[in-house]
Amino acid sequence: MKKLNFYPTTDIDELAWPEENYDLTIDSPALSFFTDFKNNKPLIVESTWSVLNVKELMQKEHVRLKFVIDENKHFIGVVSADDLIERKIVQKVSEGLERAEIVVADLMTAKKNLKALDWQDISKASISDVITALKNDGERHCLVMDRENHKIRGIFSASDISRRLRLNIDIQEKTSFSKVFTATL
Fold first, then answer.
1. How many Cα atoms occupy the beta-carbon half-sphere of 87 within 13 Å?
2. Cα separation of 66 and 157, whole Å?
3. What CA–CA distance (Å, rounded) separates 112 from 1?
4. What Pfam families does this protein's entry cite (predicted)?
5. What is the pLDDT of residue 117?
6. In this structure, is residue 9 part of a structural domain?
7. Is the N or C terminus of the chain more exposed, i.e. has fewer CB atoms within 10 Å?
8. Would you tell me how many other CB atoms lie within 10 Å of the CB of residue 101?
C-alpha cells in the first residue's frame, strides 16, 4: 500500500474548472448537448423497486427520469418524476394495492409507449432542431436510439440544454384526451 501525504493549501489560489464551451448557440450541433450512453452510464432502476424508494432517490439525486430494466437487465421503459406524483400513487392504492407494495413497473411508461429520435438524424441536426422536436412533442426528455444496433444510445434533456445555452426552454406538455380522462379518475 502506498502512503499518501497531505500538503498545506496556503499557496493555492485557484479552483480547477471544467472547460466549458461558451460558444454554444441554438445553431450548435445537437451532439454537443447529447448524453451518450457510450460515454455516460444511463441512470437505471429495476422494475421491482418500490416507487416510494425510487421517488425519494430521484429527489435526492435531482433527477427527473430514470431508465427501467427487468431482472435480465433489459430495457423495458422509463419512470419520470411525473409518474411518481402522489395522485398516481393514491390511484394505485384505490385499486387495492398497499402503498409499500407499489413498484416501478406499476407506474412507469413502457417502452412500447415511448418514441425516440434516430442517432443518424441527430448526428446531422442542430440543437435548435432538437428543441423544436421537444416543444412540438411536449416532452422534457427525448430518447435517441441507434436503430442499426437496436439500442437506446442516449438522451436529450431540456433542462440540460437550457442550462448549457443559458436559455429558458419552456416545454408545454401536450394535452390529450387520454391524459385528461385519466387525470379525472
1. 7
2. 12
3. 51
4. CBS
5. 95
6. no
7. N
8. 13
CA distance 25 to 167: 10
Instruction: Write the CB contacts of 78 (distance below 8 Å, at least 6 apart in sequence).
Output: 65, 66, 67, 68, 108, 109, 111, 114, 141, 143
Only one residue has cell 499557496, namely 11
Is 179 inside any structural domain? no
At residue 20, the pLDDT reads 62
Residue at 87: amino acid letter: R
18 belongs to a structural domain: no
Residue type, 156: F
3-state secondary structure of 10: coil
Range of the domain at 142: 30-173
127 exposure class (CB count in 10 Å sphere: 0-12, 13-18, 19+): buried
Residue 30: count other Cβ atoms within 10 Å of its Cβ: 22
Listed in sequence order, the residues at least 6 apart from 13 whose beta carbon sits closer than 8 Å to its beta carbon are none
Q: What is the pLDDT of residue 176?
A: 46
Specify the number of domains making up the chain.
1
H/E segment holding residue 59:
helix 51-61
Domain assignment present for 11 = no
Cα distances (angstroms) measured from residue 76 to each of 57, 145, 160, 162: 20, 14, 24, 28
Spans of the chain below 50 pLDDT: 175-185
